[in-house]
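Q: I'm teaching a short session on how sequence maps to structure, and I want students to see two examples side by side rather than one. Could you give me a first protein with its sequence written out and its structure tokens following it? Keep the formatting plain so it prints cleanly on a handout.
A: Of course. Example one:
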Amino acid sequence: MPVSLHHIVIDAHDLPALSRFWAEVLGWRILSEREREIVIGPDVTAPVGICFMPVTDRKVVKNRLHLDLTSAAEDREAEIERILALGARRADIGQSGAESWTVLVDPEGNEFCVVRPKSTLIG
């Protein structure tokens, strides 16, 4: 049997705060909370979740991996505003302004994008 994706792991300086931010952004819930690990997901049977692990150092460079989020086209701007109200910030990583995505950073500076809706994983 081939391997499958189980968790996306995000290092966190403030483990409880960052995991709760992402749970709110995604409409997920806390599935497991331990001293050195918090897991969020839509439910315990979901194929993939996000696991937050504590680190003592702060993020200082652009992520090598980031999440792309999407919503219905008519909800996109309202969703960006909702995410900003939860504690995200807009980020300038050299965009031209013509992109079909908006770059944001979470409360600890991890970049992520809100992309235009698509019906497939490519294109």
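Q: Perfect. Now a second example for contrast.
A: Example two:
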Amino acid sequence: MDGDERRVTITDVDIPFWRLVAIFIKFTLAAIPAYFVVLLIIMLIAAMFSTLFGGMGWMMRDTWRM
């Protein structure tokens, strides 16, 4: 395939306005569930760190009162 390479340059894309609006609406609607999935993952990571390191302040409270 070394000799069969062909380079293509796209110079113009003709998409009707309302078709483009429909594509943007579909992307927006698809992003909403993805946002909640990412939010859930971040919340789980934050809960994990809170569980691991959240009680350290309470453990050290007696040594702070000198």
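Q: What should students look for in example two?
A: Point them to this: Residues 17-53 form one domain. Also worth mentioning: The chain has three helices and no strands.
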